[in-house]
Amino acid sequence: MSMFDLSGKAAVITGGNGGIGLAMARALVDANCAVSIWGRNAAKLDSAVKELEARGGAVHALRCDVTDPACVLESFDAAVDRYGRIDGCFVNAGTGGGGRRSFLERSFEEWRRMLDVNLDAAFHVLQAAARHMAANAEAGQPGGRLVATSSIAALFGVARNEHYGASKAALNSLVRSLAVELARYGITANAILPGYSETEMTEGLFTNEKFRDAVIPRIPMRRFGKVEDFGGIAVYLMSDASAYHTADCFVIDGGYSSY
Ligand code: NAP
Asked: Closest Cα partner for 136 from 177, 176, 84?
């Protein structure tokens, strides 16, 4: 399986201290990739570091609110200082926006906050990563992986959560554009679109019996996603196996969007 051995590579994972991001970090560490995990919650960061180090991983944790462009730049530089070179960047931090409400009552502040976390922050992180990778390519070391955690909400009409759907659809478009522009540097860019998956973000939904009863029959696999369902794709996208795979949207939803 040497094609999936990530020894000598390093990845940044925003939102790497919990949920899908931490599951990606676990899988990357198990494939010998060094990781720099970012998040706001210091306790979650500490516990993620302990867990990943216990798996034998090289781990670097940074407290960073990705909506703060200065913090993003500082953190990216710190990750480069730590590992010398960043080979992959997983823009995974995101918000679900909390409670749902009608578009008729949506405040512009809620709309802006959603786009700030899910889209504008991705701009800052991806730009820092792309600049770093393009400079490496100019210096004779091409390559690099940009990955965004989007959502199947980008594919559907998401009533009462239109700002979330819009933020994720924009992310897909951003990724495709970067794939086309940055291919000349050997950089790939892809999006992962999870279906309903059990994390802190969706806790409220999954404990709601009415929601479970309505949604599970719509999922051909008859279960919600687990965070470990997203480890393999992270390893694949970091690995040499995906060198020619770019501009894609990987739907990982147990078949929900095809049913
Ligand atoms: P989660 O466990 O709540 O993880 C969200 C992560 O984002 C946390 O690590 C959180 O860290 C981080 N984060 C949020 N705002 C941040 C900020 N301003 N700065 C830095 N970090 C921030 O939920 P999850 O489900 O794993 O979410 C991960 C991604 O998957 C999100 O982009 C989400 O939209 C997407 N997604 C999830 C589902 C699902 O069903 N769970 C479905 C489709 C897409 P802190 O707690 O430290 O702030």
From this structure: 84
The pTM assigned to this predicted structure is 0.98
CA 224 to ligand 1: nearest atom:
40
- Catalytic residue, candidates 164, 185, 196, 256: 164
Q: Determine if ligand 1 sits within 6 Å of the CB of residue 94.
A: yes
Mean pLDDT of the residues in the chain = 97
141 CB near ligand 1 (under 6 Å): no
94 alpha carbon – ligand 1 mean position (Å): 4
Query: Residue 1: what pLDDT?
Result: 62
Q: Whose CA is nearest to atom 41 of ligand 1?
A: 197
User: What is the rounded average pLDDT of the residues 22-31?
Assistant: 98
- Side-chain-side CA neighbours of 178 within 13 Å: the count stands at 29
Q: Is 259 part of the annotated catalytic residue set?
A: no
Domain membership flag for residue 259: no
Average pLDDT over residues 233-248: 98
Q: Which amino acid is at 42?
A: A
Q: How many domains does the chain have?
A: 1
Residue 256 lies in a domain: no
CATH code for the domain in which residue 197 is found: 3.40.50.720
User: Ligand 1 in contact with 238 (CB < 6 A)?
Assistant: no
Residue range(s) defining the domain that contains residue 155:
2-251
